[in-house]
Amino acid sequence: MSARPKLLLTGASSGVGHSLAKHLSARFDVIAGARRVDRIREAFAGNAHVHPCFLDLTDLPGTESALDRILAERGPILHVINNAGIFLKQGIEALTSEQWANCLNVNALSPWLVLKKVLPGMRECGFGRVINITSGAPLNCSPGFAAYSATKAALNAMTVTAAKECAAQDIKINLMSPGPVHSEMAPTGPMEPEVCHPTVDYLLSLGTDGPTGRFFWLGYEVPLFPDLAGVNWLEGKGNEKLRKVL
Ligand SMILES: NC(=O)c1ccc[n+]([C@@H]2O[C@H](COP(=O)([O-])OP(=O)(O)OC[C@H]3O[C@@H](n4cnc5c(N)ncnc54)[C@H](OP(=O)(O)O)[C@@H]3O)[C@@H](O)[C@H]2O)c1
Fold first, then answer.
1. What secondary structure, in 3-state letters, does the chain show?
2. 16 CB under 6 A from ligand 1?
3. I need a labelling partner for 134 at 20 to 30 A (CA). Which of 64, 106, 193, 223 fits?
4. In the prediction, which pLDDT does 118 show?
């Protein structure tokens, strides 16, 4: 591998991940993960800066071994995009526990596992840039999307917490939604995946004073939480930010 910075990207076999692998391989050595690794190999044949690697993120022990192997072979990875995701439209009564488990593993637990594995190297280097790909779904909670929305909500909460845990160092961990883009999961998406590139570039090149633990979408910052400043949860004291009903 060359002296370029390394970037770990999940979900590189289609949609947003495919377009990011192409875009980012101009300046990073992209370790490009997915189950359909042959597809990445074919798409990037001749591109020495895309390194396909098999990852099945429903299999957490297998993912852990694969990440250990990647880090042992390549050393610390200071740029990460947790992009892989499962989209599921299924009403509450029809959802199965297997669907929930798969969604949870791919959308929330595997980004946590990736972070857990790369953070020691980032802490040692005092630098890291992580983008966790989320969605507007957990902010909208539309009927039919409980598993998708809830698992992306778990990703959001994990990301904001991790950002706070790393705030003393130059490690920025942010959320991004690509936009309503055309992909395998969203074949009728009105935009091309490339629309997310400027926001990705912005988040990967943040300076030390840049934001962390925040949510970005098509160049906008999206508020994740209502403003509840002054509510004293630990002492059970509300204020005018809460509507009193009793
Ligand atoms: N498209 C949109 O409008 C939209 C909107 C909001 C958020 N997003 C988010 O954007 C991200 C990318 O989605 P996309 O639109 O590009 O969809 P996509 O074309 O369906 O791509 C999903 C990617 O995730 C990978 N993946 C799925 N299950 C996996 C597993 N078990 N193990 C490893 N990799 C797995 C797939 O690779 P393999 O199948 O080869 O494993 C594929 O590369 C997702 O996190 C999605 O939630 C998309």
1. CCCCCEEEEECCCCHHHHHHHHHHCCCCEEEEEECCHHHHHHHCCCCCCEEEEECCCCCHHHHHHHHHHHHHHHCCCCEEEECCCCCCCCCCCCCCHHHHHHHHHHHHHHHHHHHHHHHHHHHHHCEEEEEEECCCHHHHCCCCCHHHHHHHHHHHHHHHHHHHHCCCCEEEEEEEECCCECCCCCCCCCECHHHHHHHHHHHHCCCCCCCCCCEEECCEEECCCCCCCCCECCCCECCCCCCCCC
2. yes
3. 64
4. 98
